[in-house]
Specification:
The protein contains six helices and seven strands. With 197 residues, the chain is of the alpha+beta class. 40% of the residues are buried.
Length: 197
């Protein structure tokens, strides 16, 4: 299937937040971090609004069934103060102090493991549950990787679900290592795709 892919607008944080929350509803690491699904949509929306759309880029299918968020090289991963407070408030509301602690541990660990080289970072690629398996994720990935390839730079991601690793491998990513970011957290796979020169 060849899916049409378009750029996300800077104002489409609500849409991409909803798409990611829908597609990640069965994701082991996110379920552990958020202590359920109710906190995912508001937090992913805040991250899109204040970090990934202003500093990076994203894509979607025109019908809003799937989307992805990327950061280009040399981007900061840190949220401004007020959005950070909003994220913490949503975590407390939906997942309690356990969720706040889990997110802080996960974030600190993964930031400490970010590669030192310059790369394009895939934060999330997500397809709504009722549209998975139709080639939308592959179409999104190919579109996103065009930027890395145009820059002749590698790409990096962190897979939070074992069953997604073969999908990423099919697009040129290889596992750097398998990590457990915190006690009780399910494993994650750091993955790297070399630059296409």
């Amino acid at each position: 299937m060849s899916a049409a892919i378009v750029e996300l607008g800077r104002h489409e944080h609500d849409l991409i937040g909803d798409i990611i929350a829908d597609g990640f509803a069965d994701d082991p690491v996110n379920l552990w971090a958020y202590q359920g699904t109710s906190g995912m949509r508001p937090v992913f929306t805040l991250l899109a609004r204040h970090l990934y759309l202003p500093r990076g880029y994203g894509h979607k299918t025109p019908d809003g069934s799937a989307g992805a968020l990327w950061l280009p090289p040399d981007s900061s991963f840190d949220l401004p103060l007020w959005p950070s407070v909003q994220v913490a408030g949503n975590l407390l509301k939906h997942g309690g102090m356990k969720s706040v602690g889990n997110i802080l541990k996960l974030d600190a660990f993964m930031k400490s493991r970010k590669p030192k080289a310059r790369y394009h970072y895939l934060f999330a690629i997500s397809v709504r549950a009722d549209r998975q398996g139709q080639g939308l994720g592959g179409a999104l990935m190919r579109e996103g990787l065009k930027r890395a390839d145009a820059d002749r730079l590698p790409a990096y991601l962190e897979s939070s679900k074992a069953s997604n690793v073969p999908f990423y491998r099919a697009h040129g990513f290889e596992v750097i290592d398998e990590v457990v970011p915190a006690k009780g957290c399910p494993p994650m796979w750091r993955m790297w795709r070399d630059a296409r020169l």
